[in-house]
Design brief:
Blueprint: H1 3-35, H2 43-73, H3 81-113, H4 116-131, H5 136-143
Amino acid sequence: MTSKKALKQIKLIYFVVTSLLAVFAILSFAFVSLNGAVYVLEATDENNLKSLIIILALTGIPASYMFHSRKIKQINKELTTNQKLIQYRMSFFIKIVTLEGISLLSLLSYLIIGSINQLLIFGLVYIVLALNYPRKSNIFDELEITEPEL
């Protein structure tokens, strides 16, 4: 696999995840707006679900960043550019999937209880996801490689 192909795969993974999450969010909002909540929970269960999603968001976002930065620091500097990009791709994938999981859980809780707060948490995590767009310059800075090395 070439370095350019690895860069394309990183961007493809990002595009697919963010696009599908946006579509699911729009469909969820439309469904809840038209039909209401899917399941009626007792007040304590609803509060527990809300708290769980908030705790997951508050711990999952920093955890994904810490894991990614730790994996990037562990990449051997003597590896070829292609090998570095393959390791970066895996670390980036785990970071994006972590954020996607939190987003999906908040959307599912929005579908279940119909609380707009859960949709706001989705929006917060989605913004964090959007800020992680894999620009070539950011990848090169993190891996400490240059354009001619491709």
